[in-house]
Amino acid sequence: MEYAEVAEAAAGKMELYRHDPGGWRGCRQAGEVAVSWRPSAEFAGNVYRAEGTVAASPRDVWECIKPVAGGRRTKWDQNVKDFEVVEAVSDTVSVCRTTTPSAFMRIISPREFVDAVLMKEYEDGTMLSAASNVEHPLCPPRPNFVRGFNYPCGCFCIPLPGEPDRTQLLSFFQTDLGGYLPQTVVDSFFPASITGFYSNLTKAVKALKA
After folding, report:
1. How is 76-98 classified by DSSP, letter by letter?
2. pTM for the structure as a whole
3. CB pairs under 8 A, 24+ apart, for 89-94?
4. Is 178 left (phi over 0), alpha (psi -120 to 50) or beta?
5. Would you give the DSSP letter of residue 161?
6. Cα(154)–Cα(3) distance, rounded to whole angstroms?
7. What Rg do the C-alpha atoms of the chain give, in angstroms?
């Protein structure tokens, strides 16, 4: 499998989503974070868009969310129990396995995800992490986890002109949790989980700066 091609394609999808305002329906607002959704073209579920500002520089926000071995994500993101780089394909592309704890009052059991991940920096200072599901010989399904699948997803850390200590964080989540979950559970879980992601990230950035 060409992992770099999968990761590049995911980044391309993120660009399309970023510049496509059509069809998004608001579903949750929490502070400065707005979450909306529309039906996914990738699988029989939804793609979620979240947009908000974080009171920190893009570099500090990126430090907290970048998908690297030994990164900070497992320390603050309640939905990430473990993160490992399975294969470093290049300086910017890797295959990663993420495991998640049980969630939603244990209705959602622990999951694992295997993705090709791309990190990219744009000329204006915007940083992107994009990912999509892959298979890897070192990552067979494990018995204690349900295998979930991330379809093209990612986060943009976007500088705000004239505001060096604030960052626009634009995120897209497109996940098939796998297993046999009622759709009502899935539809309730994601908006709440996404706003929690922003809230916990804000706290993590404050701790980083302290």
Report:
1. H-TT-SEEEEEEE-SSSEEEEEE
2. 0.95
3. 89/3, 89/4, 89/7, 89/116, 90/4, 92/118, 92/119, 92/120, 93/3, 93/4, 93/7, 93/8, 93/117, 93/118, 93/119, 94/67
4. left
5. T
6. 16
7. 16
Amino acid at the residue 128: L
Copy the structure tokens of residue 121: 């920096």
**CA-to-CA distance for 94 and 67, rounded, in angstroms?**
9
Each residue's pLDDT tens digit, 6-29:
999 999 999 999 999 889 999 999
Q: Is the dihedral of CA 147, 25, 62, 11 positive or negative?
A: positive
73, 80 contact by CB (below 8 A): yes
Say how far apart CA 104 and CA 60 lie, in whole Å: 30
Mean pLDDT within 159-187: 93
Amino acid identity, residue 174? Answer: Q
Measured between alpha carbons, how far is 74 from 72 in angstroms, rounded to an integer?
6
